[in-house]
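User: what does the whole thing look like in 3D?
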Amino acid sequence: MGPQIDLSGPGGLVLAVLPELVLAGWSIVLLLVVAWRHKTEGDQRFIGQLAVAGLVVTLGVVLGFWVRDVSPAGHEAWIALDRFRYLTDTIFLLGAALAALLSLGYLGRERVHVPEFYLLLLFATVGMMFMGGSTNLVLIFLGLELMSVCIYVLAGIDRRSVFAAEASLKYFLLGAFASGFLLYGIALIYGATGTTDLTLIYARITALGLESNTMLLVGTGLLLVGFAFKVAAVPFHMWTPDVYDGAPTPITAFMAAAVKAAAFAALIRVLLQGLGPADVVWTEIVWWLAAITMVVGNLIALVQRHVKRMLAYSSIGHAGYLLAAVAAGTEFGAAAFLFYVLAYTLMTVGAFAVLAAIGRRGEREVRVDDLNGLAKHRPWMAAAMTIFMLSLLGFPGTAGFIGKWFILSAAIQAGQGSLAIILVASTVISAGFYLPIIMAMYMKPPASEAAHEGAALVGASRWIVAALAVCLLLFGVWPNRVLDAARQGTEDLKPSVMMTVAR
Amino acid sequence: MNYSDWVLEALLILPLVAAAALLLRPEREAKYLALVATLAEFLVSVPLWWAYDASSAAMQFAVARPWIANWGIWLRLGVDGISLFMVLLTTFTMPLAVLGSWNYIKERQRAYYALLLVLTTGMLGVFLALDLFVFYVFWEVMLIPMYFLIGVWGGPRRLYAAIKFFVFTFVGSLLMLVAILWIFYHVGQATGTYSFAYDHILANIGVTQPWAFWLFGAFFLAFAIKVPMFPFHTWLPDAHVEAPTAGSVILAGILLKMGTYGFLRFALPFYPDVAFSPMVVNVVVLLALIGIIYGGLVAMVQPDFKKLVAYSSVAHLGFVMLGIWALTLQSVEGAIIIMISHGISTGALFFLAGMLYERRHTREIAAFGGLAKVVPVLATVLTVVALSSIGLPGTNGFVGEFLVLLGSFGEYPWATVVAATGVIVAAMYLLRALQRIIYNKLDKPENEGLPDLSRRELAVLIPLVVCILWIGLYPRPFLKRIEASSRALVEQVRGEPPAIEVQHAEVAAPGVER
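Assistant: Here's the predicted 3D structure for the full assembly of 1017 residues, as structure tokens:
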């Protein structure tokens, strides 16, 4: 047992949110730096590097908590001190750092000069950390809003692009709508249980037998709708393709990976830790969401011709797989979510990074056919893209497969064999759009000798792509440590029986 | 360290190391390195022949190493009489495949030979794995190199063929994954030991009986697509025809056997009650017969020699399926012998088709004629190989088909009669093709100056011809090694000692309930 923090007093609380405080403090200092240095391209890069440094420092703090296995003394109020929080924080920070590193070269190339870009990224990450780490619905909502507002702006950061403006506005309108649902759901749950604290909600539902209380059920439903918007589950996915398509590619990668992961982390915490006793109701709903999301997301991706849009729709499909992990309603399912979301972050960021490199100015326009013959001129880039595509497909030897296997295991363990079959069926569908990319790169001749001349991974992005590909293979062949971490990370997620009885 | 301790792991690792080494060396060395590596692989595997204890049906050379041990996944490997020859067939075919690609593959040689080597590991892994998870991983991993071999170095319709091959196999195997996980959890829940080990699952498979039909169905679909059985066979002609020569040889020679091997290793031992319920028996036997007759008839009308050979595979594998489902000692042994000899004969036919193509740049049967005068050696070899594929006594094809027909007659007399006509159909299409290619009149001037077999081509074909005659004339060493495991399988699946020695065959009346 590691050191314990008493969460009943302000001192303990401050200590408990140390990672968030570090990152928020760093962001505010960075804001001042921006005020002094924002003129040149070099300044912007400098800010970006500082932002990455801030993320790394925060990661260090989180890992410190994790390694020393910090746990709460007594009642867990406001903020959780468990491995699930540290693991999800790690994933968010990783996703943010990757997005920031990719942006270093990308912003310069696209001539977007907004040094605040990195600040928004950092503040969004702080929001995510609260989403994954808080045990109180109000704080989760605050985290969600902090993240969302930053992302609305980030989506439209390229002020000259009509599509970016469209993406930003759409995301804002629908996001605000979703927040409304979420807040209404929280209000109703509060009405039913008299608290917004997750463990207390759990205890009161059990103690007072509120499992079929109408107000609680309606609240749960609205909460799920709100989260479904955020994770882009069908039928609440309409905003996704346009937003992903119009946003700058590093931000798209960030949204597809980290933002989604944060919404899922909050969802899992709320469902398991708070609404656990009412799981009969929500597993059913999430089951259907998962099934529809997997099938529809992959089917629509099948008919896309533009790579970026295809990846956007395929990310809906992946949200469906993650929902399948949630639908299991067990800690094992949550562990499957953790592993899959890590793998998904790596592969989706990698795929978007390669896409950004191929797209040069205007990757919205990259069609699958534009990849023809890439392997001939850019063999390493094509090889990396192949690994990302195979991993997204869930092919053995890559982390994507281990993740899918984990989710399938969770579904089968929870007795949801039919969901497992729907999952593999939609995986088959997804072969129909991941394989053509490999096919185009390796099996079709390039349109012209000069077709891929400008396609190059420059600077940091080259190393990122290489590292991502290697990690995917490594976790695909030797996932032991990550699997164990994921399993340990969810062990203490559900409030223990003793705690519930004591209250 | 004993040979038996390291051989199986060495067989899996060697090609991977060679593939990595090959990628680091210059392009022109690629094929030499690949040849050396595949020959080394073959030499490593050859002592298995002697080291294998033919009297035992147990898994030999067994290896178990923790892989994802917390999840019950170990690298468990082993060889028995069923897989022994599949392993040897693989290591035997690969050097020939490299030699057969020698001049045909001119572009991106490094990648090509590296993929062949990776494919070797994948295929061997499928035959060696005694852990269901490991089996599944190898089963899938092997798809990618084959997909690239067809898609990059294939014929004009290669893209279509490659994706069709991939998707067909992928559909079946993913359902199999669900079935494997389902079994894993239910066996784990019942016994408290969560393990993918073949032995563990086989011993406790009874707990999954309530879902036996569906689980069997998932395995059945995966394997039937791979075999391929009749309605699932449509990927085969496309893939075989479009693949480069070595790809076709490997597809026909080894990949198809993974399906029948899967039936013998997993589907039947796990769910004998479902496999031999009257409905499933009727369906399988019927599909096997359709495969034999339909495959033969379609082969008959093919103008393209390679396509003819491809469809003949459907027919041959029909015999294998019939032999497996008859489940007598003879029929199972016969089925395994057909698996071996089909690999050799059809492999040789694909090599010959490739050699003809390299000479004339066409595979149209009608474009040839009277080759016996121009290229006598090639014509002789082609005749021998074609006759072995028909099943002429004295060649390998006869031994297997005879045993299958013999062993099946007691079980399904009518089906066996129909299957026997398949041999006649085979004679019709192959002899006719032979006549039109080799004999007839030498009426096309383009055919006059064709070169005969080169030394390299002879080096590819002679080992195959030797095997054809060896198995045909003296199959005892093969049967001896197959027997113990086949007997054990039959006993285990029937749940009783097999009373079906040859002399008792007539006792079993048709339609007897198992």
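In plain terms: The CA atoms of residues 173 and 370 of chain A lie 34 Å apart. The two ends of chain A are 23 Å apart (CA to CA).
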